[in-house]
Predict the structure of UPF0391 membrane protein CWE21_11465.
Amino acid sequence: MLRWALIFLVVAIIAAVLGFGGIAGAAAGIAKIIFYVFIILLLISVVMGLVGRGRPK
């Protein structure tokens, strides 16, 4: 998922350099959304790993 965020970020930068403002803004917005989803899923995964570690086997 982080790969997709980076791909959209690169697309946004290239579109901005070439002067396509609307496409650059949309790609940057998508990249931000995907990045935040990645961060939330990462935090959930870390918390679940810590909670699961505390249980005796």
